[in-house]
Specification:
Helices cover 42% and strands 13% of the residues. The protein is of the alpha/beta class. Strands 14, 15, 16, 17, 18, 19, 20, 21 and 22 form a 9-stranded antiparallel sheet that branches. It has a 5-stranded antiparallel sheet with strand order 5-6-12-8-9. A hairpin with a 2-residue loop joins strand 5 and strand 6. Helix 19 crosses helix 20, helix 33 crosses helix 43 and helix 35 crosses helix 37. The structure holds flavin-adenine dinucleotide and iron/sulfur cluster (2 copies). Flavin-adenine dinucleotide binds next to strand 3, helix 5, strand 12 and helix 16.
Length: 1012
């Protein structure tokens, strides 16, 4: 049976049996062909199980046909642990429940994200303790698979110290609960397999769960008994772990308790012994008090020596950074630039904990004394005061791998040769040997280490697309691992062996690899579970990711790229996604990706879009797929909020990649009717405005809303803005604003968006009034047309280009006359600044882009220059409490900054009490939330924000984006206004009856929304 036939067989056999999803199409499989490593292997199929029985059925089906299975969590492995040619089982999609929490333990499904578990445990002042730097992404299953650890390894160890029991699907599909188990056979009578060294190979599996456990425990005990000397001899002299099965740990527990700790054996097994669906983990008390500081050194050698000096003090964490890393950190964040002097050649981030702050501080003081005393090693120390500074310092460590991953360019620090562990006392000498090896191989590398336990990450600079460089990397890996072995160290200590290190492990630690093979045979004699990882690889097997071609194929319709970049620039952009998976984050500290948060499936993640395009560009995915609905469906899971572009460590322009995918699809198929109509929302609004009374009656009438939904695709439950019928342009003409301003001094061109023009003339008047109040001349050029963002979001590049071209002429002319361009709608700014350069090549583009900003940024800049009039009047009467407003920063207004300038401006207004919403994306995303297809998704994404609006005490909302305003008023009777209106009101520029409260503003007709 060939692979195609096998695939249809899988669909036929499993689709009816599995409650979860069975994905066999090439598009879905392409998303599971890579992770954060440099490897690529296309799976035969992907199963996303919902139940333990789904996993069991899949494994049993595969085992019967000798097809391998590969468990996967978040796919953030740096060594290719979850990749393979068989069936990938994605446990990260549905296994996301925390099942039970007891005093010092927690039972979880293995797709739970580590950071979410920590958040849950923190409510009971507990913690998992194990702290990988990407805990907002990594799953518990992946952490068990890799035996993950983090900076606090010296205090909390790795996952093997946390696991108590596990529900596991074994290689034949049996579901068992693994617990430490006494072996049945006397260990001195260990079985020997005639050919294969220790252990009988194929024992018929027991059918009873308890018997099965004893059988497994006995098999493992035999391996341990027969190989005791070898295991002891190969054990690292530290507590540090190595890649693969933790046999020395098992031996220790067996000797101590007479039990084979089967759950512990799963840690580091990378899915090769069983697929873990649930686990009970031991928790630790949350840290009471800590002292954190950064010691700075003039050289790496001195930092390494300092780490040795600190060892007797048992720091909880001691992370070492080399000069290159410090330089990168300084250029990435201004805070680090202030913190770290350029002369620093290395740094050690050190943490001590204790029962109270004073005791923790005393431990840190002792460390400082040792490093700064008579034989001073460090040149300076930066000690964190308070929680915020501690978190900021920790950011240096937490973001280290992401920062390295994020370096752009064909030659960059790559994750191939890393994760070496050496005995701590050998660490300084090993660093010297390492520098020699790097010199001999003519390679530059970045170094990062958990120094007190000798754990070292080495990132050589290389171009992984160049076959010669790959060979060089393989030779370098060989040489470094050789040195590690000679120093009594090991490899794969924190991030496992995966596909990229298993062949080297076998070469450098052949005896241990032989024992691993023996253990593997106890659990999986047929080699069904993740073969080629931990055991069973040959050196020729490194599955390098193929290079990208500039476009799918010369003849394929349509040629990519559709946007203005060159084919090489486009391929480089796609290639810049390193698969780190940070865009799968669930951390509240980041806003990416609202769609993934709502539907945490791989295809929804930003990374999926880059992976899909990479598969097309490398021609692994048939270029004809560009016209298929499966590709469009993946592209449509992006609603163009741009948060990934802002938060991705490599700054990959995912929205532009998505536009390419959509544009290619549109070129082949054209837009469907509803998308076509919704992307022309400006024209529709224009028509509505022309017959405003009629249109307003229609949007308030349930029958006509039903019809509108059917014909236009606009969800009938969605509140819609009233049409005002007021002709903004006529008003502007009467005010003389439609001619270039004759004023001397600063002048702006106000670029109107659809919402302001058709639905909110009061906003236009408010901004004009605010600007004029500050002595700024305003020009509203009547030739401008809508920005075109809905067309870009739909993939109608030709349509968007036409609008962009008209606007560019108008804007360029104004810029030449010395105008700045400002918009009240943030998405219009994004469209001009980000999309226009990708739509059009024009000599004036850069100047237009540089001159364009949103109104709030413009006004805030005025304030910073001391030129903003501050004669604001209180927005509440003297005896009234301040008006409580919830401010929401729209996604497009936050690109590249933490806070929107509008928030800063509103804080200048007296009589306003401002709550910052901080509840992520509103979910509206322009026309996305209008569509009946997306209505429910949009509401779910925006639920946090809408709930905040409903909160007691909040009187109204404020935000710049019209879409967010619609969403904030959905499901609440409270109004939401543009911040500029509040400024105008506070300046006393908006006419209105009543006291100085906001009543007139908040009940004005233009602010009303009509529901069906
Ligand atoms: C930016 C970045 C920072 C990182 N920082 C750290 C760090 O500080 N410390 C650290 O240890 N690692 C780190 N890693 C490496 C990696 O993220 C971790 O090893 C992580 O634990 C992998 O989890 P995952 O959910 O992505 O698993 P995956 O990559 O999907 O899988 C990892 C392995 O576990 C197996 N597996 C997954 N689920 C199961 C299951 N249910 N049952 C059995 N086996 C399973 C897979 O087959 C695979 O072999 C980092 C990676 C990146 C990209
Ligand atoms: S898009 Fe960015 S954050 Fe996401 S996987 Fe790619 S590089 Fe990482
Ligand atoms: S633009 Fe927004 S929705 Fe699209 S992938 Fe990026 S974060 Fe997700």
């Amino acid at each position: 049976m060939d692979r195609e036939q096998l695939r249809s067989r899988i669909e036929e056999d499993l689709s009816g049996v599995v409650a979860g999803e069975v994905l066999c199409d090439a598009e879905s499989r392409s998303l599971y062909a890579t992770d954060a490593s440099l490897c690529e292997v296309w799976p035969l199929a992907v199963v996303r199980p919902r139940t333990n029985e789904d996993v069991a059925a899949t494994v049993a089906w595969a085992a019967k046909r000798q097809i391998p299975v590969h468990p996967r969590g978040a796919g953030s492995s740096l060594a290719g642990g979850s990749l393979g040619p068989g069936v990938v089982i994605d446990c990260g999609r549905f296994f996301r429940r925390i099942l039970q929490t007891s005093g010092d333990g927690v039972r979880v499904q293995t797709g739970v994200i580590a950071a979410q578990l920590e958040e849950h445990l923190a409510r009971g002042s507990r913690s998992l303790g194990v702290d990988p730097s990407n805990s907002c992404v990594t799953t518990i299953g992946g952490m068990i698979g890799k035996n993950s650890s983090g900076s606090r390894f010296p205090k909390h160890g790795a996952m093997s110290g946390r696991i108590e029991s596990a529900r596991v699907v074994l290689a034949d599909g049996a579901i068992v609960d693994l617990v430490p188990t006494a072996p049945a056979l006397p260990r001195q009578h260990a079985l020997r397999d005639a050919d294969d060294g220790p252990l009988a190979s194929a024992i018929t599996p027991a059918t009873n769960g308890a018997e099965r456990l004893v059988q497994l425990a006995s098999g493992v005990a035999n391996v341990l008994a027969v190989s005791r000397e070898l295991i002891v001899a190969s054990q690292p002299t530290t507590r540090a772990t190595h890649g693969g099965y933790q046999l020395h740990d098992l031996l220790r527990v067996l000797d101590r308790d007479g039990l084979v700790d089967l759950p512990r054996l799963l840690c580091g097994a990378e899915g090769t012994l069983g697929i873990v669906t649930e686990a009970t983990l031991r928790t630790v008390p949350a840290e009471a008090a800590t002292a954190v500081g950064l010691f700075l050194f003039d050289s790496l050698d001195r930092a390494a020596e300092a780490a040795i000096r600190l060892r007797p003090l048992s720091p909880d964490a001691c992370d070492l950074f080399d000069k290159r890393h410090l330089t990168l950190a300084r250029s990435a964040k201004p805070a680090f630039d202030q913190l770290i002097p350029p002369i620093a050649g290395a740094g050690l981030l050190v943490e001590f904990s204790a029962a109270d702050e004073q005791a923790a501080a005393a431990r840190f003081d002792e460390a400082a004394r040792r490093l700064q005393g008579p034989r001073a090693l460090c040149i300076d120390v930066r000690r964190a005061e308070g929680a915020a500074e501690k978190a900021a310092l920790w950011e240096l460590s937490r973001s280290v791998v992401a920062t390295l991953h994020g370096v752009r360019g064909t030659v960059r620090p790559v994750p191939f040769v890393e994760d070496v562990v050496v005995p701590p006392e050998a660490f300084p000498e090993f660093l010297r040997r390492l520098q020699d090896v790097l010199k001999q191989c003519d390679v530059t590398a970045m170094l990062f280490a958990h120094a007190t336990h000798g754990q070292l990450h080495i990132r050589p600079y290389a171009d992984p697309r160049d076959p010669a460089e790959r060979l060089r990397l393989e030779r370098l890996a060989d040489a470094i691992y050789e040195e590690a072995a000679a120093a009594g160290g090991t490899i794969g200590g924190e991030q496992g062996l995966g596909l990229s290190r298993t062949p080297f492990f076998a070469a450098h630690f052949p005896e241990l690899a032989g024992l691993f093979a023996a253990v593997k045979r106890v659990f999986d004699p047929e080699g069904v579970l993740n073969p080629g990882v931990v055991t069973g690889a040959s050196p020729a097997q490194v599955a390098w990711r193929p290079p990208l071609a500039a476009q799918p194929s010369a003849t394929s319709p349509p040629p990519l790229p559709v946007l203005t970049w060159t084919a090489e620039q486009f391929a480089d952009e796609v290639d810049a996604c390193n698969g780190c998976g940070t865009c799968r984050t669930q951390s509240p500290g980041s806003r990416m990706c609202p769609m993934y948060r709502e539907n945490p499936a791989e295809e929804t993640s930003p990374r999926a879009k880059a992976n899909l395009m990479a598969s097309l560009l490398s021609a692994r995915l048939d270029p004809a797929a560009l016209g298929r609905d499966a590709v469009r469906a993946i592209a449509d899971t992006c609603f163009n909020c741009h948060q990934c572009r802002a938060d991705c460590s490599a700054g990959v322009d995912i929205p532009a990649i998505v536009t390419e995918l959509k544009a290619a699809h549109v070129n082949i198929n054209s837009l469907d009717l509803h998308s076509w109509l919704l992307s022309r929302v400006d024209s529709l609004s224009g028509l509505g405005g022309a017959v405003a009374p009629l249109a307003n009656r229609a949007i308030a009438n349930p029958q006509s809303r039903w019809l509108i939904e059917k014909v236009l695709g606009v969800a009938r439950g969605r509140k819609l803005p009233r049409f005002t019928g007021q002709q903004v342009m006529r008003w502007a003409a009467r005010r003389g604003l439609t001619r270039p301003s004759r004023r001397s001094g600063p002048r702006v061109l106000y670029f109107l968006d659809t919402f302001a023009r058709r639905h909110d003339p009061l906003l236009v008047k408010a901004l004009v009034a605010v600007l004029e109040h500050n002595g700024i001349g305003v020009f509203i050029d009547p030739r401008q047309v809508s920005a075109g963002m809905p067309l870009v979001a739909a993939g109608d590049v030709a349509g968007a280009r036409r609008l962009a071209s008209t606007n560019l002429r108008v804007l360029a002319e104004a810029v030449r006359l010395g105008y700045r361009i400002i918009c009240t709608e943030p998405s219009a700014v994004t469209c001009i600044v980000h999309d226009y350069p990708l739509l059009l090549e024009d000599d004036e583009m850069d100047r237009v882009v540089a001159a364009t900003s949103d109104a709030a940024t413009f006004l805030w800049d005025l304030h910073r220059e001391g030129r903003l009039s501050l004669d604001f009047q209180p927005l509440s009467g003297p005896s009234q409490p301040a008006t409580r407003i919830l401010y929401h920063a729209p996604c497009h207004a936050r690109i590249g900054r933490d806070k929107s300038p509008a928030e800063h401006l509103l804080r200048l207004v007296p009589g306003l009490s401002l709550d910052s919403a901080d509840r992520g994306c509103s979910g509206m995303a322009g026309t996305f939330g209008l569509s009946r297809h997306n209505y429910r998704t949009s509401l779910r994404v925006g639920l946090g924000l809408v709930s905040a609006m409903r909160g007691g005490g909040i009187e109204a909302g404020a935000t710049e984006c019209s879409g967010c305003r619609i969403q904030m008023e959905q499901g609440t009777s409270k109004p939401t206004v543009h911040p500029v209106k509040l400024l105008a009101k506070s300046y006393g520029l908006l006419a209105g009856p009543g006291p100085d409260r906001l009543d007139s503003l908040l009940t004005g007709r233009s602010g009303l929304l009509t529901t069906s």
